[in-house]
Amino acid sequence: MAILKQSNEVVVRENMRGGSGKASFYYVPIPDDEGAVKMASRIELEPGASIGFHQHVDDEEVYAILSGRGIFTDGTTEVEANPGDVFLTRKGESHSIKNNSDVPLIFFAVIAKKQQ
Predict the structure, then answer these.
(1) Extended strands (E) in 1-116
(2) Which tens digits make up the pLDDT trace of 18-47?
(3) What is the pLDDT of residues 51-61, one digit of tens each?
(4) Are 29 and 75 in contact (CB under 8 A)?
């Protein structure tokens, strides 16, 4: 078992994956031990910001909405993203998320390798 704590260092990215505005990432360091989890982070999207539509070719991603509101898109469907919602993007699928509110959209993202 590993206990992994979020870093206090923030990484700010603009126009993430072709999206708009700023996304702030608070990464959880993942040991380089060939485990299934590639990345874990708490992400904050400022009002109006988005992570652009992108495909997961060799991995899967989960978003768990903590606070705020937004719109999650999987390419064919747009749904409201509310606190407590969880979205799974499987290998080969695509997605995006946008903060359409006037407060930060905060969610936890985990990217994992697709197991054989």
Answers:
(1) 11-14, 22-27, 37-45, 50-55, 59-67, 70-73, 78-81, 86-89, 94-99, 105-113
(2) 999 999 999 998 877 657 888 999 999 999
(3) 999 999 999 99
(4) no
